[in-house]
Every structure is written in structure tokens, then in C-alpha cells.
Fold:
Amino acid sequence: MSSDVRWTPPAFAVLLLFVILWVVTLSAIGTPRIEVTVGIAGHVVRLHYAPIWVHVSGLDEATEGSIIVRQKIGNPAEDPADIEHVLMRDSLSDGIYEATVPVYDPLNPLEVSLVAADGSSLARSTVNVRMNRRTSRFPAVCGFTTQVAEDAVFIGTADLPTDWWGFDGLRSLWLGGDCAVSSVKWQSVAEWTLAGGSLILLTGSDFYRMDSPALRRLLPITDPRLETSWNGKHVLLGNLKTGARVLSGSGALPLVISGQYGAGHVLMVTKAASDVSGPEMTAIVAAVPSARNLTAQRVSEAVLREMSVVRPSYLTAPAIVVGSLCVFAWFAKWVERRPRRAMGGLAASVAVFAVLSGLYTNRANQPVDLYVSNTKITVQDGYSIDIGWHSLYSSRARQLALNHQGESHVLQSLIRAAPEASFDSASDPSTTWLPLETHEMRELEFYGREPVLVEARVIDDDASVVNRTGHVIEHAIVLSGGFVYRLPPIVTGEQTIPLENGEETYVYESGHVALDLVLKHFEDRLQLLSRTWLVLFEEAEAVLREGKLGRKVRDTTVHLIRAETT
Amino acid sequence: MKRRDLITEQGGWGVYVSLLLLCGVALVFSMPWATRVRELIASPWQPSPLVFFSVYALLAAIVGLNRGAALAPRGVLQWRPLLKVAAQIGFAHFLLMPYLVYVRVLLPGLEMRIPILAAYTLLVSAVLGLAAHCLESWRSARGETSSGLRYGVLFGLFCLPLLAAFGGERFGSMVPLSPFGVVYRLLTESAGADLPIAFGFPAAVGLALLVYIGFRARRWRR
Structure:
């Protein structure tokens, strides 16, 4: 048999090709590789969060390591700022890792590395998002292909991020057709809407494919039911929730029903995407509000500005000066007549003043060089999200390690508050390291989600509160029917508190800058006055000393908890 | 002579009161003034111990010049008046002790630099006292005052090294010759390398003056 094989040149070429392919395949096996997708369907917006998926392959076994994303801000030829995010530091194996990072300058590529625990690079990928960058937020459409806007992006359910702040780059999210969203993704959609997102649901005959507890919570109607209209199309109808209204169509056969969930808007189209005509779609598009996330910036800044400066008392230095002059005057008067006593008195007085000065100038009175306001606003309505902001002011150049309270990486505001300010930073989900210049103010945003630990129900004139936080919450109020009711400290466990001595909201002042500002700025966005809310307020302040540096930190947390009323 | 004359002879009172008052004003102005962070942000005045220590160094130098000249005998150089000069300069610094302790509130982590600065200022003050003593003794023998010369020396010591430093980096090493430069470097930078120059220069000048005075005093006794 073997004598029949003729080793002609083509046979040699084929054999050689097989050998090369075999060698290449062998070398590929066991070589870690990463494939990276950034943004919703690859689209990103400058200074907004974007989801990132890192597909790791070729790891033979679980390896201790980390996934690191590096970005540059500015012209690469002119000393750009380097931003580094450690997405995860864990035991890594083959699979898809999802995280959410802020995108600062999509003109520059993102470099993603898989780094072993010893610091060696296992794999690296460069992602160029320049072509898919957006100059402003854009609509995303999942499940159907109707062009709702010129800048709309068609996405699949796999493009929906798991972190709700991954939707940060969206102006609106359209769900309908065959968009089958998992419960985890429904949660992130609901949380984004709660934070100020704009969600359009095209239901009709697609409703049962989409139905989930999260969807029911988002819908502006209760008891949804499908009915058949005169033309044989299915229409989703139900009872309007409080505050919901029909925007388009008739009362008997509405086309668009608008409702509010948290700070966000939900537009429910009663028909399926495939049943909506062109003019109807034009009317729907015109009614869609833009997403606008809640922000704690103004509250955090105001708290920072109102923080007291750590300093010695105004009176101490003048008192020492005046005291010294008085002692010297007394000495000058008596030194001629009683020189020995005068000299002794002077020496003793100077020594006493020096000792008192030494005792007074302890660490508690030494000025600090860094003031930090950490503000977190938790909004809870079935789901619970965190809106956070760090405001910093430094009177001395320093390197800062800032611990986060939220789950997201921080997003720095790129307003240059000092001429030499640098936006270089390194960050993992719990800490960010950044340099601060003298007299620099820095703003950093973060988001997160919270477990539901406090629940409230207001029935008649009683508030029933369940506190599972494990600690007592000192300041609590209930907003209901345009009145504010002050509550006693909320202890752990369940308690029923009578609502008495209500004050009208427009005359109410809590005495806390942060709480008053939250009530003022969130009043319209969350409809604080027309709905019933339990508001909890926690504040802590500490001065921390780190060698010759010191920082004063104020942590402010406001919980806005939608109370059930039935 | 009574013991108290050691510190009060030749109009010492005014000098001490001026020193206490002016250093006190500098101390008050060195303190952070802002009550709220918004005031720090709006007008980021750096409440700096530089203000106090610069004024302290300048006034201590003037006290040295003043006392050295005031106690100088006409045309002769003797050790006894020099002891009075030293006593009066030391007394002036002793009066400032509460201020020096209090100002540490502005120097968290740098407290050890206060005694170094105090020792340096005392040294400069004493050396200028010696210089003024010699100048006044020499000029008074001719019926003239050394006032212009003394304050010329003061200007030269405090300002010329700093002006020279503006001339380029190669003159940067002259900065620690000026007390202002020493104060700045000690309070804002790690000034370890500058300390030998900072202390060595006035110490060398002081030693030279002491040798000169010793030589002149021996000649006068003969």
C-alpha cells in the first residue's frame, strides 16, 4: 500500500500545511487569550460608564490573577493622564467576566490585560472604541428593528449590562418584540429606571414573552390583561397606577401610557412592536423623555463647603500675645523695686505660658489638609440603588487612597480645579489612588446597589417599619400627603409608630444641610410630596491623622424608601 | 552694676516689647482663619508658619543688630559689653518661648524643626549682634554712627542670596545663606543638605568676629 503513495510536490505542500496548522493549534492551546467587548453593542459615551465583557480562554487551570483596564486621557503625545481599573482580582479561569468601567476618552484605545499574581502579563488586548464612540447619550432598541431615532443602536439581550450603571450611556431603552430579558437583566433595567432612566416597553402580543415580576413593577398599570382590538391585534390593558396617564390613543384603547418609577419614566406601548404603525411610532418617539440620572453632586458639595475647618481657636493666639505683653509689662514695673521677685515671676510666667501652649496645641487642634465629603443617597422602591458622590478639598499636595462606599468604580469629574492637577488614578472596586494638588477640589461619582434592609408601610396614621440593618437609625421622618412626620430613632426589628404632629413640608427644616438639600432637589424627581416615603438620615464625621497629614471625613447617607400604603 | 541691668541697659524695654508685639501679630496672622471649607475654597490663603518664622528671623536679626550697637563702647572692644549683648539677645528669645511652642500647631509632623529654627535664629541674631558691636565701636570712634552700615548688612544677608538665586540655578546654592531661604527650605522641603551651610556660614562669621574682637581687646589692654 505504502508503495502506492507518491510524494509529489503538491502532496508535500498539503502535508506541510497540516503540520503548520497542527503546530499553531498546539501552541494556541495553553496560551491564555482575551477577547474584549466594551460598551452597549460596542458603543460608548465619553465620561459615562460602559459595560465591559472580557472573554478569557486558554487558561489550563484556575489562576490567581487580575484583569486590568488602562485608559489615557488626552493627546498621547502630550503626557496624557493614565487611568487604571482593576476589574477583578481573583482566581481566574476560562469564561466571560463582566464589569462596568467609566470611559474617559474614547479617542484613545483601552488596553485590557490579564495579569498573573506575580505581575507577569498573561494576555493583552487593545480595544479601539474610537469609531463607535458617541458624543451624547443614545437610544438602544432590543427585540425589534424599527428605527426609533437616527442615532439608535440595535442590541441583543446579551448586550444588556448586569450593573445598572452600565446603562449610563443610554438616553432611552426600548424593549419589545423578541427581547427575552433574564430576571438579572430585568433587575438592572428596573434599577436604572429607578435612578432616572427612560424605558419604553412595547407590549401587546409580546407581553407574555416579556412578563416578569420586575416588569409588573415597572408597568404603569396594574392587573395587565391582553385584549383584542377591533382590527384583531392584541392590546395590553389594565388599571392605571397612581400618577400614570394616557399620552396617546383613547381612554378605552390607549396607545401609550406614561408612568413614573423612582426618578425614571416608563412609557408602555399597549401594542406589540410589529403592530405599531409609522405615525404611531412617530407619536411615541415624540413622547419619550431622556434619561437623567439622579446625582448627589450638589448635596455632597454643599456638605463639603459647610464642613468646619479644623483649627485652633481664634482667641488662643491673641490671648498668648496679650498675656505675654502683660507679663512683660508687670515685669518692667516691678524689676526696679523687687528685681528678684520680678525675674522669678517672669521666668515662671513664660514657662507656664509655654507649657499651656504645648498642652493646647495637641493633635486635636492641628489643622488638617484634606476635607472629604462622602455622600450616598439610597433610593428604594422594590429595588434599592445607591447614588453617590465624593467631594474632596486638599490644601496640600498629596497622594490619596480613597475608599469607596459603592460598588462601581469612581468616575472622576475632569474639571481642572488646580493648574497642575493630574487625573492619573489607579482604582479597584473598593479603593482609588489619585494625586491631589495644593488647593485642589476633586469630584468623584459612584453608583451601587443595596440590599433591601428597611421596609416601610404607612396605613392610616401609623407607620410600620422593619429595620434589618442591625443598628439604630437616629433620624427618621415620614413624608406623606404633603406633611412631614418626625419619627423616634428606628431600632432594629419591626415597630409601629403613630404619625403625629405633622409639619407642612414647605416649613420643615431638619437642621441637617444634606437632608434638607436632598428633600429640596429630589422633591420633583421622586415625587416626594405626592407619594409616601420613609426618609432615614445618617451622618458621621471623623478626623483621621496619617503622620504629618490629616483628613476630616464626613459620611452622609440618606435613605429614601418608598412606603407601601395598602 | 546690678544684675537686672544685664537685660535692661541701653533701652532694652522698647526692643523687647516690639519683638513680642510684632512676632505676636505675625503669629496671629499665621493661624488658619477660615471657619468653613467654603472659605478655604473661595480664598485659598495658605495659613503658613512661614509668615511667623520669617518675621521672627527678621526681628531677631534686628534685635541682635540693635543690642550689639547699643551696648558698644566708643572705640574699644571688650568682652564685658559683649556678655550684655548675649544676655539681652538670649532674654529676647526666652520671651518668645510661648510663641515658639504654640506655632507647632501649624507644623504637624515637623515639630522637630522648630528647635532647629530657633537655634538658627539665635545664632544669626548673636552673630549680627557681634557684627553690630564691632561696627558701632569702630564708627563711634570716628564720631559717626554705624546705622546705615548695619542695616546694609541686614539687607545684604537677608535679600542678596535670594536675589542671586533669581539669577539662575547655579546661584541656587546661595539660598541657605539667607535666613529667609533657610526658613523656607526648613518648613517646606527636606532641608538636610542645606543645614551645614545654613549653620556653618553664620558660625564661621561669628568665629571670625570673636577672633578679631579677642585680638583687638588684647591690644587695647596692652
